[in-house]
Amino acid sequence: MSDFLSKSEIRARFCRAMSDMYRDEVPLYGDLMELVRDVNADVMDKNPELKARLEALDNLDRISEERHGAIRLGKPEELFTIRRLFAVMGMEPVGYYDLSVAGIPVHSTAFRPTDGEALKRSPFRVFTSLLRLELIEDDALRQEAEAILARRDIFTPRARALIEKSEADGGLDEADAATFITEALETFRWHSDATVSEATYQRLHDAHRLIADVVSFKGPHINHLTPRTLDIDAVQRLMPERGITPKAVIEGPPPRQCPILLRQTSFKALEEQIAFLGDAEDGRVAGRHTARFGEIEQRGVALKPKGRQLYDELLDAARGLAQPKADGSNTADYMRALREVFAPMPDSYAELRAQDLAYFHYFLTDKGRRAVGLEVSGDIATLVAEGYVGFDPIVYEDFLPVSAAGIFQSNLGDNAAHDRLVKSNRDVFESALGGPVADEFAMYQALEDASIAAVLAELAIVRAKAS
Ligand code: OOG
Ligand code: NI
């Protein structure tokens, strides 16, 4: 039997290959990566404590390697097969995001690794949306879009074959994995040749810009790749110095001592040359399309349901005071409202933990390791209080629907419609996917529980040695 390459290794290599491809396609992404690398190095120079913590958690290496991407699919079969493609790399669908509340005609999930070891090796994730064609009101146009999508296959025959092989055998060996990476990459590549005429593109575009982006091309080109920064405010401030224009407002929570969840900002989508189908057999008509952009993110601690509910309420309240405008004219007002409104969210890890608002990874302290022969209770809160056990934030690995809507909108033109759409349907999404999406809270809880179990087991060994 041949040796399989680990799914995490395939994912890490795929992530690097995708990053290289996107840097060639969108050079500004390369500039952004450089800026993020500089800022991250600077943050760690100035904050040796943070650096030590990241090192201790074995998380330092992943920072500069870390990124997420996004694609938009056109038909249920594409979602079904992309789930199988991502499974080859150890990525599973987590969470359901309904973007209809923001007037965006898609629903989405995030494919990502889920266990602790896999997340350490490469936390690469892909925000994956499925277009909701049923929202095209014009029957003829909807049928035309369906027919166009029915004709395309976004996966190469070899990618399909290797997905099947991996499913049948339980993995891929080195040579197959290399081929798989090359073939899978084809699905995400940019194609400047549209599959439709200019007139069709225009009609799709008039229904919604996103519909034109999904339906008019051969495949679901990766539309952004997002490196992780340790100081998003610094990157936002420095972008213009490097010739990059950021969107007006950083999405998510306000700046804090202890980052929570996720903050994100992007630069505007580029206007790119494309070629429409012409009337003549092989004729082409020059055109323009905007779709691909760059984004950065800063990740913080994952919140428990109670903390998340508080976050959602506070964000709603801030937006009630000031709706951030795309032209940046009220950014200062919005940021002020956000800061003020978020006061009830404690800004220390100890308090977030004490109030049961966030997830933590527990470990034995030096004192815990020396707890030989002491009368130590098994209750984690007491162990923490007495200094036997320490805790570190568990990083949020998922996305935020309001933020995602803001990222979509910043790249759909400033006057994109914000009307609410008919609520989308999770059952429809999951039946296309071929299974349920995982519950993000359950995953974080499992990570926290495992760390508590490990601490208690270690402590039991320490105490057994003593007696
Ligand atoms: C996805 C936008 C959402 C994020 O980071 O929240 C997203 C898209 O534009 O396709 O990537
Ligand atoms: Ni994104």
From TrEMBL:
GO terms for molecular function: dioxygenase activity. It comes from the Bacteria. InterPro entries: HGLS, YdcJ_bac-like. It holds the Pfam family HGLS. Its EC number is 1.13.11.93. CDD domains: VOC_YdcJ_like (cd16348). Keywords: Dioxygenase, Iron, Oxidoreductase. Belongs to the 2-oxoadipate dioxygenase/decarboxylase family. PANTHER family: 2-OXOADIPATE DIOXYGENASE_DECARBOXYLASE, PTHR39479. This is 2-oxoadipate dioxygenase/decarboxylase.
